[in-house]
Amino acid sequence: MVKIRLRRVGRKKAPMYRIVVADATSPRDGRFIEIVGTYAPRQTEGAVTLDEARIEHWLNVGAQPTDTVRSIIRKAGMLKRRHEARLATKLQAKAVPVSERPAEA
Question: Can you spell out the DSSP letters for 30-79?
């Protein structure tokens, strides 16, 4: 299984994390597939940077975000946009075109 999770980098007492796509069995700071963002919890501005296109790609192919990463991408508004887009496609698929509707009396 592929996960989107945090990988710790930075100095002692000054953590910084990379948001990476990695196999679930690899160690926390070990092998990863791709870096898709960063998270610096001690910064006030610019604490989170995300490559939204790549995160969207990995979510579409089945990667599971950890709870912390899910919270980070939710705050960025990605999950809401993703949900709305999926809902719109479902509704569009269910909608019957006007030409195929029965005539009203």
Answer: S--SEEEEEE-TT-SSS-EEE-HHHHHHHHHTT-EE-HHHHHHHHHTTHH
CATH homologous superfamily for the domain 2-94: Ribosomal protein S16 (3.30.1320.10)
- Residue 35 exposure: Cα atoms within 13 Å on the Cβ side: 11
3-class SS of residue 25: coil
Q: What is the pTM of this model?
A: 0.77
Instruction: Provide, for the chain, the percentages of residues in helix, strand and coil under a 3-state DSSP scheme, each rounded to the nearest 5.
Output: 35, 30, 35
7 residue type, one letter: R
Residue 66: phi, psi to the nearest 5? Answer: -70, 170
Structure tokens that stand for 86 in this block: 């999926």
- At 34-89, the pLDDT tens digits run 999 999 998 878 789 999 999 999 999 999 999 999 999 998 888 888 888 878 88
Tokens read off for 35:
């870096």
